[in-house]
Predict the structure of Glutamate dehydrogenase.
Amino acid sequence: MNAPYLRVTWTDEITGVTGHLVVDRLRRGVASGGVRMRSGCTLREVTDLAGVMSLKEAVVYRPGDRYRPFGGAKGGIDLDPRHPEARNVLKRYFLAMRPLLEHHWATGEDLGVRQATIDGLMTEIGMRSSVDAALAHVPDGAEAGLRRLAHAFAVTVGEIGLGDLTGGYGVARAVTSALRHNGEHPAGARAVIQGFGSMGGATARYLARRGLRVVGITDADGLVVNPDGLDVETMLRARTVHGGIDRDRLGPGDRELPGDAWIGIDADVLVTAAVSYAVHEDNHERVRARYVAEAANASVTPGAEAALTGRDVVVLPDFVVNSAANSWWWWTLFGDIEPTAESAFAKIDETMDDLVDRMMRAAGAGGTPPREAAVAIAEANGAAMGGVASGAGLSPYGAGSPVSGSA
């Protein structure tokens, strides 16, 4: 397996904090991928995530779209995002990475980093946007594309911005598509969501709206459960900026459990929407769900996934189920959809239904896990796009990744 195209490690001269950027591959000279901030973020993690981004870009390719996928990249900073110096560290990181941001790396929000913060910092360092590297490829010009993005980010649905909903909306659609493919009815199925940030919160909302009972949700302080189903909308209205659950707003049937109890809750669907490597070799035996949906990138290690597959647990891979947030940016920027919720959700529905059905059919016909089937789709799309792609080959994880155990 080839090494990633580029690895950069940066040390903040003021705080000593370390940050990384990995470009897994370039297409048309550009790689796409967000920047995360969390205590303990490593180069290995960022490398894995950059590889996932290459897959995520390629797997949604449609010949009729104006957007032609880029390569994959990821940034990461080893710092608690609640640290008082977090914003200043992120600004210095962007200043250090500015030459790459201008020409090769299009980025956006990820774990621990909000898009509004990124947008403010881009203005402060004199850049138009965090996707400047992609703007030369917009068919009707950069300004038209940026106007569409600005209009789309101004849209709210049920008091939540569209940009915070598209990822979780896509996860929920992928889950219900997989259930229906297997002849199961989403209505009444039970779901547990690990994480209540942008991805986890939106997934919870749209699973509930599709008839599933969300019986458990975690945040940094623990797990809240209700076998009859949690009141997701009330919890969303009281959610903190860092995805915290307001315990003062819990319903009469809700109860609290320790944070690590999420993995063993009796449910049909387990959604990992918080951190990478959440399901690993030391805890996968506790999973009781029949489906695991990776709303967070690289949230199930390869060893754990193999073991779950051996138990007939269907693991829906990250680069498929959580691809809508990334794709929505590009569909909007390039003009494949209008900057409205209706247009965004319709495109996500069409794309996710088709992609999940193709993945599940290929997995069923060949007796392979869904991930392998989806990788084959991404590789075929990459070949169909043509041109030269520099960097690592398409793979579930980054080159040489020794992913095992917890992280």
